[in-house]
Amino acid sequence: MDSIIKDALSNAQAQKPVMNSKDDEELMEILKQHQARIKVIGIGGGGNNTLDRISEIGVDGAKIIAINTDAQDLIETQADKKSLLEENLLVDLVQEQFQKSAQKPLKKVKAILKKHLQNPT
Q: How many Å apart are CA 74 and CA 66, to the nearest integer?
């Protein structure tokens, strides 16, 4: 898997377009504006381990976002943005899930995810 990604990255670098005119520069600016924005969000220990692996491989242009209740794990995670969830928030979520009324903790988690997904950088 690593070799496939490394080959793709080296091929992409080798195939950079030659800019011959002002038109080419304008076209490149248009392409940059319409470039896909990739955000990878890891939640919890397993999610953050996955983020570390993605960072090791090197996904060009992807924003890495880590979310966890464990501050120490967040410190050790390689990510562009990090959010610490209140530990009792997840306990509330589990308890309220059994009561079929998980709206309050779910709204908090959704708000955190929405903040990261709506932010263009």
A: 7
E strands along 8-92, which residues? 38-43, 62-68, 81-84
CA dihedral 49, 52, 57, 58 (to 10 degrees): 140
d(CA 17, CA 49): 36
Fold of 34-118: Rossmann fold (3.40.50)
Is residue 9's pLDDT more than 70? no
Q: Which region holds residue 83: left if phi is over 0, alpha if psi is between -120 and 50, else beta?
A: beta
**Axis-axis angle for helices 103-118, 87-98 (nearest 10):** 130
Q: Above 70 in pLDDT, residue 58?
A: yes
Among the listed residues 72, 68, 73, the one whose alpha carbon sits nearest the alpha carbon of residue 42? 68
